[in-house]
Write a structure and sequence with these properties.
Layout lengths: L10 H25 L1 H10 L4 H13 L4 H11 L2 H21 L8 H29 L5 H33 L4 H22 L16 H10 L1 H20 L3 H8 L4 H28 L2 H18 L9 H33 L5 H30 L3 E9 L4 E10 L2 H18 L10 H15 L6 H4 L2 H12 L3 H6 L1
Antiparallel strand pairs: 1-2
Helix pairs in contact: 1-7, 1-8, 2-11, 3-6, 3-15, 4-6, 4-15, 5-6, 5-8, 6-15, 7-12, 9-15, 10-15, 10-16, 12-13, 12-14, 13-14, 13-16
Protein name: MFS transporter
Pfam families: MFS_1 (PF07690)
Keywords: Membrane, Transmembrane, Transmembrane helix
């Protein structure tokens, strides 16, 4: 297995490499689908995990990102990003097989799951920066948006199909053979590990790498470079505030549906599939507008829509009837799917775009490490807050009382995790103001892009005409507060 980089790559080598990257993405997606999302939460609840442990599980992927410093050191030491990515991927995916085998020899333990998943996320964090810097040099810059949008679209299609199959299997086993429910999750972990190991061994190892040049500086001097870059520093501030706000609430959406609403896994996965399908149908549109205009502008459009969806979660469960809750959940997942496609694509691309080619791995590692701290702390705080609000509630209702009719209409009912959703939405709303300060090359005025997107959506999907108004709601609201705030400086002068 030859993992040495090449000085230059031919066009045919680049195209062959891009095909391997797309296929490898499918094996990785199969792995993450089998062990992540609702399935990991369901397994944790089955093993008796509390809110803090669920928050810790959600924090692990980003908590381990602090070890990306090792990736920078390894790349400087060996200057071989492909070898680092392949070896660390193999080391990280082996623990998944171990987690799957454990229940056959010992009783299920949430502590053991957390312990081995730590190593999975640890080595993934080390492999990540070298892979990102490798892809930055391999994928032509003009194709970044379109390539990764197509790759993400294929991965999401696989996620949809696999998730639905797994959900039906789990619910069937739970209803007919409950004694084998834990065994089912064990088999899923084993298959996930094998899929991930195969992708790294047979696909990632064959993807060509163009030789990189990294400045021979002290590692801490290198890490200071992105922090001295004023524009990149502004991106770090926004990204950190944004992920902190979201991760207070998002990890507990699935917990809320499974534990509080008592939804079956099939319903939870079906809702996830709806969200994924909306992402699939819109990600190419986001990718096209990202390449044509700017990632920052796409963020300014997609982020407010996602905030509206988080606020909507505060109203889930107000009424005990199944149908109204399900309809609201469908609407929220549709909006979240559309917004998430644009947000994830733009956050990835803007980081790649603002990072200088010769220092890409340093910039990206610094970004991931700093945002990881905020992203990891948030769900842990969210778990503690969920316990705190578990014994508290806030109810706002309208009561109509007459001689012939008496009716109470719940307007808002916050309890337990609903408080987290409101707090997360408020913090995300505030963080959007930090995005304004970031400058991106080729940036186009947001109003121009909104006008073009409205026209495009109207021509292709007329049913989405409301998006044009939804994407500017936060600016109108900020403008309202600014108008209501008295200008003390002028009053003092007068």
């Amino acid at each position: 297995m030859n993992l040495k980089p090449k000085t230059t790559l031919t066009e045919s080598e680049v195209q062959a490499g891009l095909k391997l990257v797309r296929v490898e993405g499918l094996t990785t997606e199969a792995m993450t689908t089998l062990i992540g999302g609702a399935f990991l939460v369901a397994l944790a609840l089955l093993l008796g995990a509390n809110n803090f442990q669920i928050g810790l599980l959600a924090a692990l992927p980003t908590l381990t990102n602090v070890f990306q410093l090792l990736s920078v050191w390894l790349v400087r030491r060996y200057n071989n990003r492909r070898a680092i990515s392949v070896v660390c991927s193999l080391l990280g995916r082996l623990p998944l097989v171990i987690v799957g085998i454990l229940p056959f020899f010992t009783e299920g333990s949430i502590q053991l799951v957390i312990f081995f998943l730590f190593f999975y996320y640890l080595f993934s964090s080390i492999a990540g920066p070298s892979w990102n810097a490798w892809m930055k040099d391999l994928v032509p810059e003009a194709q970044l948006g379109s390539f990764f949008s197509r790759r993400s679209g294929s991965m999401q299609i696989l996620n949809v199909i696999l998730s639905l199959i797994l959900a039906f299997v789990i619910d069937y086993v739970k209803d007919h053979y409950p004694q084998y429910e834990l065994t089912t999750y064990s088999v899923m972990f084993i298959i996930a590990g094998i899929s991930g190991l195969s992708g790294a061994l047979f696909l990632l190892s064959r993807t060509p790498e163009p030789q990189s040049i990294l400045a021979k500086e002290n590692i801490f001097t290198l890490l200071k470079r992105p922090l001295k870059d004023v524009n990149f520093r502004k991106l770090l501030v926004f990204n950190s505030a944004w992920v902190f706000a979201l991760n207070i609430a998002i990890p507990f959406f699935t917990v809320y549906m499974l534990r509080e609403l008592k939804l079956e896994m099939t319903y939870v996965i079906a809702l996830t599939v709806i969200s994924q399908l909306c992402s699939i149908f819109t990600i190419r549109m986001w990718g096209t507008f990202s390449d044509r205009y700017s990632n920052k502008t796409i963020l300014a459009i997609a982020a407010p829509l996602y905030i509206l969806c988080i606020i909507g979660w505060c109203f889930v469960g107000i009424y005990t009837k199944f149908t109204p809750n399900l309809i609201l959940l469908v609407i929220l997942h549709i909006g979240a799917g559309i917004a998430t496609a644009g947000i994830n694509l733009s956050l990835t691309n803007i980081g790649l775009k603002l990072a200088p080619k010769e220092h890409a791995i340093v910039y990206l590692s610094t970004k991931n490490i700093i945002t990881a701290i905020f992203s990891a702390v948030a769900p842990i705080i969210g778990g503690l807050l969920a316990d705190f609000f578990g014994k508290r509630s806030l109810v706002i209702n309208a009561h109509w009382d007459s001689p012939s009719y008496d009716k109470v209409v719940y307007l808002l009912k916050l309890h337990d995790m609903n408080f987290l959703f409101l707090i997360g939405a408020a913090l995300a709303f505030i963080s959007l103001e930090l995005l304004v300060r970031v400058k991106e090359v080729g940036e186009v005025e947001k109003n121009t892009v909104v006008r073009i997107m409205r026209s495009s959506i109207k021509n292709n999907l007329k049913d989405y005409f409301l998006i044009g108004n939804l994407i500017t709601w936060h600016e109108h609201l900020f403008g309202f507060f600014k108008k209501r705030t008295p200008d003390h400086s002028n009053s003092q002068k007068s």
